[in-house]
Design goal:
alpha+beta; Beta-lactamase; 212 residues
């Protein structure tokens, strides 16, 4: 099977972080392009075996050769939250942005709806691993993750968003290096941020994902 995920590649690998403050040159150590391996990349790197179904399964889990930063994951999560609009992040002094640069990812609307429902179930479903990110009165969506680390404990990940009655949304990504399971370490930290946001903005809407 030779296939990749163009939506993942577009939302993650096309942004390094260097555009956070236009006109400023960032040290190379502070910005990094993501790596979302394609079949062509794997054919070049692993000339003996090339792209295999095993590589594809690794990428489904976010493992193998894939490399991402918290900012890139945040950008992808934001695209899911807003229905496919890919926003260029900026560092700002004032919360009021004069200009937001964005472009649409060319996927059918039902895919974004499906992913939102899936992220909702991760937090609120009976067997959801992200239940520790749940906040009373909040419509929380998200995904936990644990990146394998050959040098110690796994890296703890959580990325998700909250929707409020006022229509405001907040995307949060937490990475705790060598923090262990994402559900135990990163998710509760995200919950604290969501709670603070909801308290300032008012109660979030109930079941805004309209789960069937």
């Amino acid at each position: 099977m030779r296939s990749g995920c163009p939506a993942t590649s577009t939302s993650i690998s096309s942004f390094s972080g260097s555009a956070l403050m236009p006109g400023r040159r960032w040290p190379a150590s502070l910005v990094s392009a993501a790596l979302v391996p394609t079949p062509e990349y794997m054919d070049r790197k692993y000339a003996d075996e090339g792209w295999t179904a095993g590589h594809l399964l690794n990428l489904v889990l976010g493992q193998g050769d894939m490399l991402v930063t918290p900012l890139q994951i945040t950008r992808m999560t934001a695209a899911i939250a807003n229905g496919g609009r890919l926003v260029v992040p900026k560092l700002v002094i004032s919360p009021r942005l004069k200009e937001v640069r964005e472009r649409a990812i060319d996927l059918p609307p039902w895919i974004w709806s499906y992913m939102q429902q899936a992220l909702y179930q991760v937090i609120n479903g009976e067997n959801g691993t992200g239940f520790r990110a749940r906040v009373e009165g909040g419509a929380i969506y998200g995904k936990t993750g644990t990146a394998q680390n050959p040098h110690g404990e796994g890296h703890s990940w959580f990325s998700g968003f909250v929707k409020t009655r006022s229509g405001r949304e907040l995307v949060v990504t937490v990475l705790v290096e060598q923090g262990g399971l994402g559900s135990r370490t990163a998710a509760p930290l995200a919950a604290e941020i969501f709670r603070h946001f909801i308290e300032r903005d008012g109660d979030a809407g109930e079941d805004l994902a309209q789960i069937p």
